[in-house]
Amino acid sequence: MSGPIFHNFSTAPTPVAPFSHAVECDGWVQLTGQMPTNPDDDSKPLPEGVAAQTRRVMDNLTIVLGELRLSLDHVLSVRVFITEFERDYDAMNEAYKSYFPTNRLPARTCVGVTGLARNALVEIDMVAKRPA
Fold it and tell me: Which residues on adjacent β-strands are paired with residue 5?
């Protein structure tokens, strides 16, 4: 077993707290939950609505995966956190599922929460695995 590798990338969004963009160990990669922040300018307002925020979050996660030379094809598990579960669940799902083929959906948990950093509506984290 190798020790963990802590990854931070200048092309990914500025962290909103003290964390690495991803931590890797033995081919397993845990991606930190991403917010719907603009990767080029953290001071820009968040996108309007949960669908736009979900797309921004997924695009931010794709940036991190790309820096790791991985893609959404390598994602095994996803956790979604949304602040307005009843109101936003369907719209979030519509945006989310557009990133994966219908026959290749990762395992997933979706949790309603009382609040997220930057007053975001959605945050998503992932677990990926490098090919052997």
Answer: 24
Cβ contact 30:74 at 8 Å = no
Query: In terms of pTM, does the model score above 0.70?
Result: yes
Q: Count CA atoms within 13 Å of residue 111 on its CB side.
A: 11
Are 28 and 129 in contact, with CB atoms under 8 Å apart?
yes
**Cα distance between residue 86 and residue 90, in whole Å:** 8
How many structural domains compose the chain? 1
The CATH code of the domain that includes 104 is: 3.30.1330.40
Spatial contact of 36 and 20, defined as CB atoms under 8 Å apart: no
Residues of the chain predicted below pLDDT 70: 1
**Residue carrying the six token digits 């979900």:** 54
